[in-house]
Write a structure and sequence with these properties.
6-stranded antiparallel beta sheet; alpha/beta; 4 domains; 659 residues; 6-stranded mixed beta sheet
Length: 659
């Protein structure tokens, strides 16, 4: 069965949630105290996993504002429904029912379960009992005449009544009748729901931050809580870990047996940790250790009014299992529940879930995760989303709540449902993500914004350059190289202007945090930029081969991308760009003097000395912009040496895609 939709009414903050649709993965987004947890806990009551209380408590669960008004109704036979859920049968499940009661006996694949405040679980589905009658008769050894007469019965009780009314019942009829009465002591509805739907109905598994295992477990106290049926979710998570190795709390009493048990526990923890680390990119240097210690409870003395000791009770020995996390990098251990909270949460969930999944066999679980991964770093929350998609969702439906934008997949907004606590309405869950208020929408907007920031200007292969003029020149040169029969810049590259050499390190750090991205850097080289380059190398933010300097292709110690061009070509481009400012005195190559080979700096110096335009300022972007608009008149003027330099540059850049 697959959960299709559900509705919660009159439960805690919920008057009527409305019908909520579910996918394989469904994300409930809402502010704190909006009612997300209440919705999950009501849903849990439909069919909780073994050992979890699935009963409603009218006093605690019914909305307080209406409790006294409806108290008598809550306690009566017509107790109101608190939760209803619609499921869809799979084709295999339908086939199994039809094999016993006939093809078409189920007239709809939809099954609705509901639960009242009197904790009566009800099941409603559409079926044709006439088909079941025909199927039973077709499988019998009865004569054709009897089958024909009995076929007028529309229900199994009517079929039984028909055979009981026969005055002369041959042995075949007696046998068939006894079989019917034995098999159908209750109705066909009971047969289908009891023998089939009871197995098909998924079990709901709820996990929140309070379900995390504790670092210190006093075994005697845990046994007492187990015997008193007062286990917490944290207790169940720990017991699930024991169950994985076939252990019981009593096994810890024998110290000799403990060593074997400890080895099995460590083996289980290694297996769980390995699975965690397949989805955990934060720190792979962690492992879980177990240690058993004994402590004595305090000695109790009873003293009378004269100060005389009357009785003395010696303290008892208590065994405590301590779970610790070892950080191999720092070679230290810390209590399990005090450090690396994100890892503790992930480990506890996987231990508990793995055992529940193992116990359930092939039965489907529906996972209700309440604010999962609150202690996880943003990147780890992304890992957890991948864990949901790759590990959980292929076998089990997942419903989780969050207000973190990093736990919302902006590429799969069809998963998102919004939860609001509205005045006079209580908690309402919306299938339309565009309708709620701004505060509720904020995590979704943030998730979309983050996704856009990752994809709008960034692709899988990114070539970082200092400014937009570099982007224009590279595109023009690439077209020119291709036009001359060479290989230009690979089309897979996305050229990303970063706004200057000083910002290169920042962009490398930001983009480098995304796994799977190719990052290349093409930098001008000048004395003031050498520190930036040295820092990139020293901090290992970038592979040595991925840092490319323009002077590698110009034969100069210092060079800008403009130095790829022949000096006469660039001088003509500047003259065309600044024609009005220069008037009848265009610049000649011989006019560009200075103590640097960089033509860009020599042009800047000329503008300053000649006070070009009345301000003496030169913008190196303007020639690039002019070239972009007038490339037809200039690109054909590129000489063979420029084409050769550009060809070598693109060859060098494109090799980064091959590594």
């Amino acid at each position: 069965m697959k959960l299709i939709r559900a509705c919660v009414t009159n439960y805690k903050s919920i008057d009527d949630s409305g019908w909520v649709d579910f996918n394989d993965v469904t994300c409930l987004v809402g502010k704190n105290e909006s009612g997300k947890t209440a919705f999950l806990k009501a849903l849990l009551r439909i069919s909780p996993i073994k050992g979890v209380n699935g009963n409603f408590d009218a006093v605690m669960d019914y909305p307080r504002k209406n409790y006294l008004k409806h108290k008598s109704q809550l306690e009566g036979d017509n107790s109101p429904v608190a939760v209803r859920a619609e499921f869809e049968l799979s084709s295999e499940e339908i086939a199994e029912v039809e094999s016993q009661f006939g093809a078409g006996v189920l007239t709809s694949p939809m099954v609705e379960y509901s639960k009242t405040y009197k904790n009566a679980l009800r099941c409603v589905f559409q079926y044709d009992e006439k088909i079941a009658v025909s199927h039973l008769l077709s499988k019998s050894d009865l004569s054709a005449d009897i089958v024909k007469d009995a076929g007028n019965a529309a229900t199994i009780p009517q079929l039984i009544e028909f055979f009981e009314g026969l005055e002369d019942r041959p042995p075949s009829v007696e046998t068939f009748l006894e079989g019917l009465k034995t098999r159908f002591k209750k109705s066909l509805w009971h047969q289908i729901t009891g023998d089939y739907f009871g197995r098909f109905l998924p079990r709901f598994f709820y996990f929140d931050d309070y379900s995390v295992m504790k670092g210190n477990v006093v075994l005697g106290e845990l046994k007492q809580r187990r015997d008193d049926s007062e286990l917490t979710d944290a207790d169940r998570a720990f017991l699930a870990l024991l169950d994985m190795v076939g252990a019981d709390l009593d096994d810890f009493e024998d110290q000799e047996n403990y060593e074997k048990l400890k080895a099995e526990l460590e083996a289980a923890s290694i297996g769980i940790s390995d699975e965690v680390f397949s989805f955990w990119s934060q720190n792979r240097q962690l492992e879980v250790e177990f240690d058993l210690s004994s402590t004595s409870t305090p000695t109790v003395k009873t003293v009378d009014s004269n100060g005389t000791t009357v009785t003395t009770e010696e303290g008892e020995q208590e065994n405590t299992l301590r779970i610790r996390i070892k950080n191999q990098r720092h070679r230290v251990t810390v209590p399990f529940d005090e450090r690396s909270r994100g890892f503790v949460w992930f480990f506890s969930f996987l231990a508990y879930f793995s055992q529940i999944e193992q116990e359930g066999g092939d039965n489907q679980l529906i996972l209700l995760l309440d604010e999962p991964g609150l202690a996880l770093h943003a990147k780890a929350q992304g890992d957890f989303l991948r864990f949901i998609d790759e590990r959980l969702a292929p076998k089990h439906q997942v419903v989780y709540t969050t207000h973190s934008p990093f736990l919302i997949d902006a590429t799969k907004l069809e998963r998102v449902r919004t939860v609001q606590d509205k005045d006079n309405l209580g908690t309402v869950v919306e299938n339309d993500v565009l309708r709620p208020d701004r505060d509720t929408l904020f995590p979704i907007q943030a998730a979309i914004g983050y996704e856009v920031s990752q994809t709008l200007f960034v692709g899988p292969h990114n070539l970082l350059v200092e400014g937009p003029s570099d982007l224009i020149y590279l595109q023009m040169l690439s077209e020119a190289v291709v036009a001359n029969g060479g290989a230009g810049l690979d089309e897979r590259w996305v050229i990303v202007p970063v706004g200057g050499a000083s910002k290169v390190s920042t962009f490398v750090s930001l983009l480098g945090a995304n796994q799977g991205l190719t990052i290349g850097v093409l930098m001008d080289i000048a004395a003031k930029d050498r520190q930036v380059i040295d820092n990139l190398r020293a901090n290992q933010l970038l592979l040595e081969t991925n840092l490319i300097q323009v002077n590698e292709f110009t034969g100069m110690d210092e060079a800008d991308i403009e130095d790829l061009f022949d000096p006469q070509f660039y001088t003509d481009l500047v003259n065309a760009t600044y024609g009005k400012d220069l008037g009848k005195k265009p610049i000649k190559v011989g006019d560009l003097v200075g103590d640097t080979p960089r033509i860009l700096k020599r042009v800047e110096l000329f503008f300053k000395r000649a006070n070009v335009g009345g301000h003496g300022k030169f913008s190196h972007y303007r020639p690039a912009s002019y070239l972009l608009k007038n490339q037809v008149g200039f690109v054909e003027k590129l000489d063979s040496a420029t084409i050769a330099r550009a060809t070598e540059l693109f060859k060098r850049v494109n090799t980064l895609l091959e590594t």
